[in-house]
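## Example record

The block below lists the input lines for one assembly entry, exactly as stored, with component labels intact.
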Amino acid sequence: MNNLTFGRYSPFNTCVHRLDPRNKIFMMLLLMVSIFLKVDSWSTTLILTGFIFLFLVIVMIISKIRFLDLFKSLSTMWFLIIILMVIYVFIPNPSYNPNHIAFYIGTYGVNYDAFYQSGYIIFRLILMVMITMILTSTTSPMDLTYALEWYMTPLKLVKFPAHIVAMTLSIALRFIPTLLDETQRIMKAQASRGVDFNRGGLFKRVGAIISLIIPLFVSAISRSEELSNAMEARGYDPYAKRSRYRVLKFHLSDLFAFIIVGAIFAGFLTLRIYDGYIIKIDFIYWIFGAKPLF
Amino acid sequence: MKSVEIKNLNYSYNVNTPVIKDLSLTIDKGEYVSIVGHNGSGKSTLCKLMIGLLEKNSGSIIIDGVELNKDTLNDIRHKVAIVFQNPDNQFIGVTVEDDIAFSLENDNVPRNEMIPLVREYAKKVGMLEFLNKEPSYLSGGQKQRVAIADALIRRPDILILDEATSMLDPNGKAEILSLVREMRKENPSLTIISITHDIEEAYLSDRIILLNEGEIVLSCLPNELFKNREIIKKYNLSVPFIVELKMRLKDLGYDIDDSSSLNEIGEKIWQSK
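Predicted structure tokens for the full assembly:
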């Protein structure tokens, strides 16, 4: 279960942790959009998003997230990265400059641009992972749920049961560790009966997984029944008016954080809208004095 | 004054197998009653009927003078609180404080009243320093103490413990039992109905009700039940250590009465002959 560390909430008390979760979700969206705005050439965009990378690294240091955790979560993405590379390199793309052929495989010319482009996509992926990781490891799942409920409030106008969805989500989150413990217990119990989860062919492994999943489902369903009894006995009525124990507050520090992220977003947006007017320098050309590749 | 009055109660999950058969029972205010019996004797079903989680087939359940039906369900649930068996499956909040506040939220209590109440009840069950802890960091006994705080914060007249200690280790069990004792001292009018397999635990109560196949076999003082060897043999009950000891010593010809403590027994043994 050690590889589930990605994005797990780490309960420190830093200024990033104390930010309003609604604000954090919104800032996350702004940064994600910024990353996906292409400005001028790929290389320019790459360097500009490099600033976001630096910004995220600083935020990670402030919020005491260990870089080791980031590498761990990225290491599970190797497969995805390789697939992306293969797709970009071997699928012909008319937008690549035909003069930038790196080498030939048979008669198919592998383009330099493909490497740059796939590199850029992978870089963006890493940034996305960093952003979500900052959000989930500095915000408790409960706060996230409350923030999501707050964002869903307008949907109440169309009779969307936002509070019920939020309650369901929070219970699901609450039971993740419990069900993980249960999974481990069942795995041990089945292993002691001779089920091998780590070896054997595909069919054998699927069989082993089924021997894990069925008891897990049975226990989860009986748990849910007991839980609903406990909730009902304590007077839970999903359609009644309920008060709140936890409230979300927008502090002054939220405003500061929002101004910083908002400025990054606004900058990217302006560059995108006036693409080709503001930035005409190609950074690669500028730095290396070489003719731009693309 | 009567706290619980059950008259001719019937209940069955399906037509052929009645779980509760024509059961009548009264429990006085402030009484501590244990309900014992085998698996499938209808103990837990009885609890669920009392807080309206199951709907009776016939008969009546009157709690503090109010008959349980669809209209009074909400009132009854304010009078009766229940602690279930599995500490994990009744922990609703993400942290201890959220969980204790859950029933207050349901009652639409304003937030500024909630905060002192949550702290007060967390203190009562000795969980004040764990307020912001998640359930996975708590022991079974601690989770069960939180469940008791959840139950008490609604200020019930009746507390039902549905095998609340059966999944705990001996330490956790002792914690919960001493907490129950404290609660009774603090609020003598609190009626406690404890469903239990544990005969030592039942021995602490004012009255034991023995249930078998949905019917009351016996309702008497703990000492009387354990003196009745026929019943004990017939229903395969275990006997608390101290009672067993007294009986064996009596068989050996020592003069020991039922109310004597372990120390007194010791005195008698070394002084005899």
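Chain B has two domains: 2-239, 240-273. The longest helix of chain B spans residues 170-186.
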